[in-house]
């Protein structure tokens, strides 16, 4: 489904619906830590990736029905535990942060955030969406790898993953690399699903306060644009959430940093203040608008919630694209 942008851009986003997900599943075990999302319109199924110690996916059905008044709740399916190629659960601390469905929704790519330790390295894996088994692991670019004074900072990515085309993904960190000379430039990498991961252009995010970072990217191929979700935090529980619009990466060998062309304060639009990390294209509304689905990571903190929010672009009658 194609997502139209607000028109004009200053029209912003309408908050259509918010949902607080339960703290526990039907089996009594905790739910939460949702850090990425992907929606299957043909099944009305929303996949949420959890960064729980034992990484897993949970499918939720009925989002379109909920938005269009045909249902009053979402229905969680069974957890899909992430496993290695032998079928064993992945070690604790996998920390999945990015999710893209591929191969006619039979597989998924998942980005894992690292801690700069041998047992918790950042990586990109492909899994079978039916079994959760790992099918492939791709190495991150050399400049991203954890060596002395270089690479991704601990717990700083990769944080975002989106599909540029059927055979290409775009991966991004949360904050600049340790060796970066510019504190505003967040690195990206282009992923050829059949081969390598190579550095792409950087995103010039607005000055990042301590605790702020890029938490998700969403490619809009029809508009040749990127949406970037930037989350900020100041203790004890002060949150911010911005959605920034960027041009598409060029794919050139020496790409310049991408500059934002517009931005929206999502809390001003009504989004509850919390730890917003997930961003995906969602169902269509009855009026024909395609929606954005956002999800928050509650960190398994009783003072936070696992929110789902659905937003739609505001568009004037003069807009026909």
Describe the model.
This protein is an all-beta fold and 321 residues long. The chain has a single domain, classed as Tachylectin-2, Chain A. It is 2% helix and 43% strand. It is built from one helix and 21 strands. Strands 2, 3, 4, 5 and 6 form a five-stranded antiparallel beta sheet that branches. Strands 1-21-20-19 form a four-stranded antiparallel beta sheet. Strand 11 and strand 12 form a beta hairpin. The chain is globular, with a radius of gyration of 18 Å. It starts with 12 loop residues before the first strand and ends in an 8-residue tail after the last strand.
Stated plainly, the CATH topology is called: Tachylectin-2, Chain A
Number of domains: 1
Helix amount, in percent?
under 10%
Radius of gyration: 18 Å
- Stretches where pLDDT is under 50 for at least 5 consecutive residues are none
Distance between the termini: 14 Å
Number of strand elements: 21
Q: Which word captures the global form?
A: globular
Number of helices: 1
CATH class, named Mainly Beta
Q: In a nutshell, what does this entry contain?
A:
The protein is mainly beta and 321 residues long.
């Amino acid at each position: 489904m194609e997502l139209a942008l607000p028109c004009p851009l200053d029209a912003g986003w309408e908050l259509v619906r918010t949902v607080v997900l339960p703290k526990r599943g039907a089996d009594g075990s905790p739910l939460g830590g949702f850090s990425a999302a992907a929606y299957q319109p043909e099944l009305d199924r929303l996949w949420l990736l959890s960064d729980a110690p034992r990484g897993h996916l949970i499918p939720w059905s009925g989002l379109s029905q909920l938005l269009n008044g045909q249902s009053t709740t979402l229905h969680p399916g069974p957890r899909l535990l992430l496993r290695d190629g032998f079928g064993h659960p992945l070690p604790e601390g996998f920390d999945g942060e990015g999710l893209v469905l591929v191969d006619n929704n039979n597989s998924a790519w998942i980005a894992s955030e690292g801690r700069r330790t041998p047992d918790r390295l950042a990586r990109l894996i492909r899994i079978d969406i039916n079994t959760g088994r790992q099918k492939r692991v791709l190495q991150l670019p050399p400049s991203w790898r954890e060596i002395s004074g270089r690479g991704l900072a601990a717990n700083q990515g990769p944080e975002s993953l989106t599909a540029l085309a059927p055979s290409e993904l775009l991966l991004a960190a949360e904050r600049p690399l340790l060796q970066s000379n510019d504190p505003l430039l967040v690195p990206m990498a282009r992923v050829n699903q059949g081969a390598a991961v190579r550095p792409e252009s950087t995103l010039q995010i607005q000055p990042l306060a301590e605790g702020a970072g890029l938490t998700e990217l969403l490619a809009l191929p029809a508009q040749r644009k990127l949406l970037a979700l930037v989350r900020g935090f100041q203790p004890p529980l002060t949150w911010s959430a911005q959605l920034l619009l960027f041009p598409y990466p060029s794919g050139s060998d020496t790409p310049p940093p991408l500059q934002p062309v517009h931005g929206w304060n999502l809390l001003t639009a009504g989004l509850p203040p919390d730890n917003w990390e997930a961003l995906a294209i969602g169902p269509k509304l009855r009026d024909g608008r395609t929606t954005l689905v956002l999800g928050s990571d509650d960190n398994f903190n009783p003072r936070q919630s696992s929110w789902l929010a659905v937003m739609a672009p505001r568009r004037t009658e003069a807009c026909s694209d």
